[in-house]
Write a sequence for this structure.
């Protein structure tokens, strides 16, 4: 009995260490790829699309969940942050299957894991923007005065937002390209159709005061 217990205990310890090492390795890889997506997005997103480590996507979603919880402290919403997070997850899954479905219609048979990883990484600019926006909201709450410092802050924030938007567009396009492996004109068709559906849906979310700015 003692030998069996010792063997089981040793096995559990080994499994726990393996899990910790695996999650730590995925976290370090996530941090590395975060910076690589800024410096060289094309080859980095290509490697991500061929990866099989879904822990990285889980970590990104965990960061987003933490953001919703913290942001609710600064900007108290009438909707619970966990519910907002679940709505975001629903939007994310719908976006994946929308693009995955059209890629199958066009004859491509790619793994859904590739969509999950690339689309998750394309959320990083969004996460950065919302996090910084919430931090600045707490540091410099509106209304902000039209002083020299206030104008300088506005110029900085607009420039920062445009930079992240450009980065976001690049990452989303690369995620779509490497996941679907479709030619350019078919990607444009999917994007146009996606935007034509998503914009009215975003207005609906805004009307119900769920997202003032879509978390995509």
């Amino acid at each position: 009995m003692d030998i069996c217990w010792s063997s089981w205990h040793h096995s559990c310890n080994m499994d726990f260490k393996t899990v910790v090492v695996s999650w730590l390795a995925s976290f370090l890889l996530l941090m590395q790829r975060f910076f690589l997506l800024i410096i060289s997005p094309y080859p980095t997103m290509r490697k991500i699309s061929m990866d099989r480590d879904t822990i990285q996507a889980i970590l990104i979603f965990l960061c987003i969940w933490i953001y919703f919880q913290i942001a609710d402290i600064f900007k108290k919403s009438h909707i619970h942050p966990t519910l907002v997070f679940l709505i975001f997850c629903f939007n994310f899954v719908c976006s994946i299957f929308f693009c995955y479905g059209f890629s199958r219609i066009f004859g491509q048979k790619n793994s859904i894991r590739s969509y999950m990883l690339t689309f998750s990484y394309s959320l990083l600019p969004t996460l950065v923007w919302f996090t910084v926006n919430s931090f600045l909201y707490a540091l410099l709450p509106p209304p902000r005065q039209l002083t020299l410092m206030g104008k300088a802050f506005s110029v900085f924030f607009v420039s920062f937002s445009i930079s992240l938007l450009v980065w976001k567009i690049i990452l989303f396009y690369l995620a779509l390209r490497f996941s679907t492996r479709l030619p350019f004109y078919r990607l444009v068709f999917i994007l146009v159709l996606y935007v034509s559906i998503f914009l009215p849906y975003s207005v609906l979310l805004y009307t119900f005061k769920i997202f003032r700015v879509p978390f995509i």
In short: Helices lie at 2-39, 41-49, 55-74, 81-105, 112-121, 124-139, 148-180, 184-207. The longest helix spans residues 2-39. The chain has one domain: 2-207. Residues 2-11 have pLDDT under 50 and may be disordered.
